[in-house]
Write a structure and sequence with these properties.
Layout lengths: L11 E4 L2 E4 L3 E2 L15 H13 L4 E3 L8 H10 L7 E6 L15 H15 L4 E7 L12 H12 L3 E7 L3 H10 L4 E3 L10 H9 L3 E2 L14 H10 L3 H12 L12 H10 L6 H11 L1
Helix pairs in contact: 1-2, 7-8, 8-9
The structure holds NADP nicotinamide-adenine-dinucleotide phosphate.
NADP nicotinamide-adenine-dinucleotide phosphate binds next to α9.
Protein name: Oxidoreductase
Keywords: Oxidoreductase
Pfam families: Aldo_ket_red
């Protein structure tokens, strides 16, 4: 399932029917504070997106709720018409309220409206990959997902969604979705310090489904660990680089979508994720999450 690409660390993964770089890009950071409003530096945001694609990244994660609209409109401005091999993944299942909150919005008419909004802001006729975002801001919440997921399956059958995934999901919800229709990815919070999905990742790897960790660098609270800093110093690297390299090593079905609003960090992350971890490094890093 994986092949080597000379340009980006991690090679490629076939997401549904299309090969994507395992080193992708998460676009949520291209807004104002708390994912509301325009970015501080509009031109830099556009440049980050163009650099990402010029550097070989073919998997970008977005959502119409980022801004809202802001990130999708930036993607359109920077990259439309989209390159043939580029896969843009988006999410539905929440909306934004006046205080910047993320209330659930998973009724069928709400999901259809969100799919339409994504089509419009991205400027496409078909969405490459739509994740049904479950749970709430605190994480996954157990419970049935059938009515919401079936709405997306219906839109997929109408031809306006190519592939489906789930996000912020419990393992049971992943199974429930897969009992209804094929999914190509699960996007959950996971990083060196948050290892709750270890069994799920291994199971999905065996079944050819991608696992896309959000907050790979810790998100709003950057990863901080003495062990991580020690391993990074030993390798002449940085904690962020080691965290990304570890994810690429963790399992071949892991696709990275680290977020950044800066070209300097983007290239630092791409370069940094090439760092080679020894068995000793891996043993030390294993201790952080458990
Ligand atoms: N499905 C969901 O519910 C969900 C939830 C959250 C996020 N996501 C997706 O996951 C993606 C990744 O998550 P994220 O962006 O929130 O968190 P992240 O990738 O873990 O971390 C991003 C943060 O790390 C900083 N950073 C990046 N590279 C750095 C470097 N080399 N040195 C120092 N700081 C660095 C960024 O700041 P700078 O901008 O200054 O570089 C930013 O503050 C998002 O972009 C979004 O697409 C999905």
């Amino acid at each position: 399932m994986t092949t080597t690409t000379p340009r980006l660390p991690g090679g490629t993964w076939t997401l549904g029917d299309r090969p994507v770089s395992r080193f992708g890009y998460g676009a949520m950071q291209l807004t104002g504070p708390w994912v509301v409003g325009p970015p501080k530096d509009h031109d830099e945001a556009v440049a980050v997106l163009r650099d990402a694609v010029a550097g070989g990244i073919t998997h970008i994660d977005t959502a119409e709720t980022y801004g809202p609209r802001v990130v999708n409109e930036l993607l359109h401005e920077a990259l439309h018409p989209y390159a043939d091999g580029l896969v843009i993944a988006t999410k539905v299942g929440a909306r934004r309220d006046a205080r910047g909150g993320w209330p659930t919005a998973r009724e069928p008419d709400q999901l259809r409206a969100q799919v339409d909004d994504n089509l419009e802001t991205l400027g496409v006729d078909v969405l490459d990959l739509v994740n049904l975002r479950l749970g709430d801001a605190d994480g996954p919440v157990a419970g049935p997902i059938a009515p919401a997921f079936e709405t997306l399956v219906d839109l997929q059958q109408q031809g306006i969604i190519r592939h489906l995934g789930v996000s912020n999901a419990t393992p049971d919800q992943v199974d429930e979705a897969r009992g209804i229709a094929p999914i190509v990815s699960v996007q959950n919070m996971y990083n060196l310090a948050n290892r709750q999905d270890d069994p799920l990742i291994d199971r999905l790897a065996a079944e050819g489904v991608a696992y896309v960790p959000f907050f790979p660098l810790g998100g709003f609270s950057p990863l901080q660990s003495e062990v991580l800093s020690t391993v990074a110093a030993r390798l002449g690297s940085t904690p962020m680089s080691v965290a990304l390299a570890w994810l690429l090593r963790r399992s071949p079905n892991i696709l990275l979508i680290p977020g950044t609003s800066s070209r300097a960090h983007l290239s630092e992350n791409i370069e940094g994720a090439t760092v080679v971890l020894s068995d000793n490094d891996l043993l030390d890093l294993e201790g952080i999450g458990g």
